[in-house]
Amino acid sequence: MSHQSEGEGSAPTPEELRVRIEHTREELGRTVEELAAKADVKAQAKEKAAEVKEKVAEAKGHAKVKAVEVTEQAKDKAAVLKEHAAEVKEQAAVRAALVGDQLREKAAEIEAKAPKTVRDGTEHAAAAARDHRGAVLVAAAVAVAALLLLLGNRRRR
Question: Could you give the CA distance from residue 24 to residue 26 in angstroms, rounded to a whole number?
């Protein structure tokens, strides 16, 4: 059997056969190259490794950018908190000064209302307590012990 050329009723010419053979050889060459590429595991592994390496580098870049962003956000928040802490500290100092002033005013009012003999007596008692701290502490300890003994005796009755 002979092959007939398309559109013609006669057998193909030798030139047409050469063209077909050349075309078939090219197709066969491409097919062999594709099969060889699929069979080359080492080359495929290298290609896959390159792809993974590229993805890792990309992920590393994204992570680095994210780390910088988070660091900047943390610095910003720290600065805001530091400012807030300074404001709170300042407010506390102002309030403490105000309370101290109010206490001094009340003490001055009480002192002004107290009779001279009471003021002199409290000043004398305070000075004596400062001079004899040990004795005052012993007296306070004795008073507490006596009070505890009295309370203990009442409970037993």
Answer: 5
pLDDT, one tens digit per residue, over 59-94 is 999 999 999 999 999 999 999 999 988 998 899 888
C-alpha–C-alpha distance, residues 28 and 5, integer Å: 21
pTM: 0.38
The Cα–Cα gap between 107 and 101 comes to 10
Length, in residues, of the chain:
157
> What string of DSSP letters covers 39-93?
H-HHHHHHHHHHHHHHHHHHHHHHHHHHHHHHHHHHHHHHHHHHHHHHHHHHHHH
Quote the distance between the C-alpha of residue 51 and its chain's center: 33
State how far the Cα of 130 lies from the Cα of 116, in Å rounded to an integer: 21
- Quick one: DSSP state of residue 5? P
